[in-house]
Design goal:
Number of strands: 0
Order of helices and strands: HHHHHHHHHHHHHHHH
Structural class: mainly alpha
Radius of gyration: 21 Å
CATH superfamily: MFS general substrate transporter like domains
CATH topology: Growth Hormone, Chain: A
CATH class: Mainly Alpha
Strand content: under 5%
Number of helices: 16
Distance between the termini: 23 Å
Length: 425
C-alpha cells in the first residue's frame, strides 16, 4: 500500500540536514530539558524543599494543566500576529524570565505562581515548534522528521528526570537557573535561524489544503481511525504522567531512597518511552494498525497499577527489593504504551493536516486536559482523605480506566459506522 501523500508541486521540502532544521532540533532538546525540570521533576523539588503534601503536589499539577490547556488553544492565534519564528523568540524570552524569577525568589507561593505561568507560556511554544519542524513534508519524510523530534524531547526528559534528584541535592538553585539558561539559548537560536518558506509572515499565512484530498480511501480510513483512537487515549497518558509524578515522592516503594535515587528509578518509564520512539521511527508498520492503540490503552492502565501498587500490598508480605524491581518492570511497560499513543497522536494529526499549527495546538491541548483531570482528581481525593496515598492512586487510576473504556467505545463506534457505510454502498 502506498503510504505517501501527494502535495502541490510547489510544496516546500526542506532537507532533514538543513542548518535551520538542526537549529530547531537543538531548540527542541533545550526546551524539553527546561520543561521537564519545571513540569515533571518539580514535584520532587517541592517535597524536598518545602515538604509539600501529596495534595499540594496534585493542586500544582492541576493548576499547570489548566494553564497548559489555555496556552495550547491560543497558540494558533499567535501566528496571526507574528511569524512562528518571531512568536517563539518572544515565548522563550518569557519562559527564561519566569524561570529566572523563580531562581531569584525561591519561596513557596512565588514558585506556585511562576510554575503555573510557565506552563501556559510553554504550551503556546510547542505547537509552533511542532509545526515548524513538520511543515511542508510528504508523509514519509514527515514520519522521519517526527521520529527525530520524538527522540529528542523524550531523550531530554529521561536525562533530566534521572539527574534531577542529584541536582536537587547538590545544586538546588539549578532547578530554575538551568531552564532559564536553556530558554535563553533557545531564544537566541530561533532568532538567528533563517526565515524559511514554511514560516511565512502573518499576512501570508493560509490554511493548508486538507491532506485527505490526496490519500487513497482505505489509507485515509486507517489514518483517521488511528487519529481518533490516539487522541481519545492521549489525555489519559497525561492523566497518568502528571498524576504519577505527583504521587511518586509519596510512594512507599520510593520513600526509603534518597532524592537522587528516587528520580533515577522514576525515570525508567521515560527511558523506555524513548526506546519505543526509536522502534517506531525505524518502520511504518504501525501506521496501518490502529488496533494497536486499543491494546496500548489497556496496557497503560495495567502498567500504572503495577507501578504504584507493591506486590507486598497484594500478598500481605514481600521484600523491598522485589517491590522495587516490580515497579521498574511496570514502568518499562508503561513507557511502551505511552510512547505508542503519543507518537500516533502527533504523527496522524500532522500528516492529515500537513503540519498545521492549529492541529499541533489540539494535540497539546489534549495533553493539558489530561494534566488537569489526573492531578485534579487526585487533589479532590486528598481533600477528603488527606495524606492517603491509596486514595490518590484510586482517583487517578479511575480516570485512566474511564479513558480506556472511552477508547474501546470509540473503536466500536467507528467500526459500526464503517459497516453501516459499506452496507449502504
Amino acid at each position: 500500500m502506498n503510504l505517501s501523500v501527494s502535495h502541490a508541486s510547489n510544496a516546500v521540502r526542506p532537507s532533514r540536514s538543513s542548518p535551520d532544521v538542526r537549529l530547531l532540533f537543538s531548540v527542541e532538546f533545550l526546551t524539553s530539558c527546561g520543561t521537564n525540570f519545571l513540569q515533571v521533576g518539580i514535584f520532587f523539588y517541592t517535597v524536598h524543599r518545602f515538604h509539600w503534601t501529596l495534595r499540594d503536589n496534585f493542586l500544582l499539577a492541576a493548576a499547570q494543566g489548566v494553564a497548559y490547556v489555555l496556552g495550547a488553544m491560543n497558540a494558533h492565534r499567535l501566528t496571526r500576529l507574528w511569524s512562528r519564528r518571531a512568536a517563539l523568540t518572544r515565548l522563550y524570552f518569557c519562559m527564561a524570565a519566569v524561570a529566572l524569577a523563580a531562581a531569584m525568589f525561591p519561596y513557596s507561593a512565588v514558585i506556585a505562581v511562576v510554575l503555573t505561568l510557565y506552563a501556559g507560556i510553554g504550551a503556546m511554544s510547542w505547537p509552533l515548534l511542532e509545526s515548524l519542524v513538520s511543515g511542508g513534508l510528504e508523509s514519509g519524510a514527515l514520519g522521519r522528521r517526527i521520529g527525530i523530534y520524538n527522540l529528542l524531547w523524550s531523550g531530554a526528559g529521561a536525562l533530566v528526570l534521572a539527574l534531577n534528584g542529584t541536582i536537587i541535592e547538590h545544586f538546588i538553585g539549578g532547578v530554575f537557573a538551568l531552564p532559564a539558561i536553556f530558554h535563553g539559548v533557545s531564544m537566541t537560536l530561533v532568532h538567528i535561524s533563517a526565515r524559511t518558506a514554511f514560516d511565512p509572515a502573518p499576512a501570508q499565512i493560509t490554511e493548508p489544503p486538507h491532506a485527505a484530498a490526496h490519500i487513497e480511501p482505505e489509507l485515509l480510513r486507517l489514518r483517521t481511525t488511528a487519529l481518533w483512537l490516539s487522541r481519545v487515549a492521549l489525555p489519559a497518558t497525561y492523566v497518568l504522567i502528571y498524576g504519577l509524578m505527583a504521587l511518586m515522592p509519596s510512594l512507599p516503594v520510593l520513600k526509603p531512597l534518597d532524592t537522587a535515587r528516587q528520580t533515577l528509578v522514576g525515570s525508567t518509564w521515560m527511558a523506555t518511552r524513548l526506546l519505543t520512539f526509536i522502534l517506531l521511527g525505524v518502520g511504518t508498520w504501525w501506521h496501518t494498525r490502529p488496533r494497536l492503540l486499543i491494546a496500548a490503552a489497556g496496557l497503560m492502565l495495567l502498567a500504572f497499577l503495577g507501578t504504584v501498587v507493591r506486590p507486598s500490598d497484594l500478598l500481605g508480605h514481600g521484600h523491598p527489593t522485589t517491590d522495587l524491581l516490580s515497579m521498574i518492570l511496570a514502568q518499562v511497560l508503561l513507557g511502551i504504551a505511552i510512547g505508542l499513543i503519543y507518537a500516533a497522536s502527533l504523527y496522524f494529526g500532522m500528516v492529515l493536516s500537513q503540519g498545521s499549527t492549529e492541529h499541533g495546538g489540539y494535540h497539546e491541548a489534549l495533553i493539558g486536559l489530561g494534566s488537569v483531570l489526573g492531578p485534579g482528581s487526585g487533589a479532590i481525593a486528598q481533600w477528603f482523605y488527606p495524606g492517603n496515598v491509596r486514595a490518590g492512586i484510586i482517583a487517578v487510576g479511575g480516570v485512566v480506566a474511564a479513558s480506556v473504556l472511552a477508547v474501546g467505545a470509540t473503536a466500536l463506534t467507528i467500526r459500526l459506522s464503517h459497516r453501516k457505510t459499506e452496507a449502504i454502498q
